[in-house]
Amino acid sequence: MYDVIVVGARCAGSPLAMLLARQGHRVLVVDRSSFPSDTVSTHYIHQAGLLRLQDWGLLDEIIAAKTPALNKMHYSYRGIQLNGFADPVGGIDAVYCPRRTVLDEILVNAARRAGAEVVEGFTVTDLVFADDRVVGIRGRDGDGPERELRATVVVGADGFHSTVAKKVGAELYDVRPAAGFIYYSYYSGLDWGLHHKAGFNEQWFGTWPTNDGLHMLAIIGTRRLLKEFRQDVETRFQAVFDDVDPQMGAQLRDQGRREEDFRPMRYPDNYYRRAYGPGWALVGDAGYHKDPYTGWGITDAFLHGEILADRIHQGLAGERPMEEALAEYNKVRDEESSGVYDFTTTLSELTELPPFFRATMDAMSKSQEWTNKMLGLIGGIVEDHEIYSPDALERLYDDAGVEQDQRIYDPAG
């Protein structure tokens, strides 16, 4: 009998298991994959996520894996340029984009070192219920016989196709249609740094230096472009760079060499799922998913995993009823992610910005101080009120020299 069984051992499940095991709880983690292994994913970890890795004692392992440190960001959205970097916080003066083969193995090993039992190559086929309460899982190691394992709490950290979420019937809410699709691969021969650029034709590209001297290059297009894109991925991929930044497009053609196959990602709609019930909880994409455009998936998995670990510990330690603790986790997750959710679903349309966001971002682009502050907001280390409170907006517009009749203070207006 375990205290907690975690289904899924990647960037939501392993940190959760690690944190619970460090508090002395008996934890089992199962995953159908074996590690190291790759998965379709963004790689970017925002400063807020790096602070979690640092607190957990794992950031040095990311750095030791020769993951490049990136301390300048080139951000562009339909002609608005934000080039700089957020002010350091907690000693974090760079960001990192590790490959999932690197990151996930570090997280799984950390869970093991903390005392969690990790079973790789395990497929969950069903949940075990008793009086409408989840009390365990059924599954098998590889091709072995099905077996049953029991726990006080079962957590689904198994992605947006979550078996746990399906079996408990976790309802969706605040669903917003997915706007685009992604193709990405890895290239040698480039020295670009971190770029995040949206053009005027519903297309975007991103570049991130990652492990092994490679750059991860990705494009996003709106759904209406997908059929045409699929007909000639190589040509269309290059064309996005040519369209959004012709100079970088020429460099890609002349200097870049694709080292791996293209990976497509047609992701589901943006959603929240109810993240708790009798004997169960959801974390990571299993419970909350948004467009990859802003690269917040990994960071949110860390943040929400830590919140959930704290609430499960409270329940297991008898400090409060478990269901009350899990309900609070769901509430806090929703409240703390709402700003990123709104920001992501707005920008991922790749269309013209609403007037308020265009006015404020254009003003920020005229000042390095405000540019860095906005990049800190994107990175999760600057709070909304530092930019969008009435007093802050007044200072922003004053610093940018925006005329009174051009100032917009209301996001709805």
UniProtKB/TrEMBL annotation:
PANTHER family for the chain: CONDITIONED MEDIUM FACTOR RECEPTOR 1 (PTHR42685:SF22), GERANYLGERANYL DIPHOSPHATE REDUCTASE (PTHR42685)
Which Pfam families is this protein grouped with?
FAD_binding_3
**Record's protein name:** NAD(P)/FAD-dependent oxidoreductase
Q: Which UniProt keywords apply?
A: Oxidoreductase
Report domain FAD-binding positions.
Answer: 2-337
The EC number(s) given in the record are 1.-.-.-
An MF annotation (GO) of this entry: oxidoreductase activity
Organism's domain of life?
A: Bacteria
InterPro entries per the UniProt record, alphabetical: FAD-bd, FAD/NAD-bd_sf, Geranylgeranyl_reductase
